[in-house]
């Protein structure tokens, strides 16, 4: 059973940067696509970024493209999300998730992910 723990969230000003990390334990996730999702108060959970099992392919939600970068370190069993030029609308709880199928390509449907972290809060003030 894989455990995912996010960290790195916090309170920042608009234009600042944050780097979120997702540490996986209990199972090696190097053979699975990974993703980041976020959920703001009163909003549905939405796809932020995804990375293929190999790390060779990434995909981003339109609202963060060009500002966020997802990466993974198979040796450390971690996935990161570098967030630059943060905006107040980026305020949300950010979740790390593991893809359901091995050797997965980038996917963005929450139903394609079967393990979730508890989330880390990102708050961006004006």
Would you give an account of this structure?
- With 126 residues, the protein is mostly beta strands.
- It has no helices and 11 strands.
- The radius of gyration is 13 Å and the shape is globular.
- The termini are far apart.
Give the structure's gist in a few sentences.
The protein is mostly beta strands. The chain has no helices and 11 strands. The mean pLDDT is 94.
Secondary-structure element order, N to C:
EEEEEEEEEEE
> What is the typical, i.e. mean, pLDDT?
94
End-to-end C-alpha gap: 40 Å
Number of helices: 0
Provide the fold topology.
Blueprint: E1 3-7, E2 10-13, E3 18-25, E4 32-39, E5 46-51, E6 58-60, E7 68-73, E8 78-83, E9 92-102, E10 113-116, E11 120-125
Parallel strand pairs: 2-11
Antiparallel strand pairs: 1-3, 3-8, 4-5, 4-9, 5-6, 7-8, 9-10, 9-11
Features:
mainly beta, globular, 126 residues, 11 strands
């Amino acid at each position: 059973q894989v455990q995912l723990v996010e960290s790195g969230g916090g309170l920042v000003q608009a234009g600042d940067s944050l780097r979120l990390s997702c540490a996986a334990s209990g199972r090696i996730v190097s053979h699975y696509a990974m993703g980041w999702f976020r959920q703001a108060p009163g909003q549905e959970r939405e796809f932020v970024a995804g990375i293929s099992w190999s790390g060779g392919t990434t995909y981003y939600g339109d609202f963060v493209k060009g500002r966020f970068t997802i990466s993974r370190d198979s040796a450390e069993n971690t996935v990161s999300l570098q967030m630059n030029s943060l905006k107040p609308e980026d305020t949300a709880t950010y979740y790390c998730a593991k893809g359901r199928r091995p050797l997965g390509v980038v996917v963005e449907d929450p139903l394609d992910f079967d393990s979730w972290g508890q989330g880390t809060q990102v708050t961006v003030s004006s």
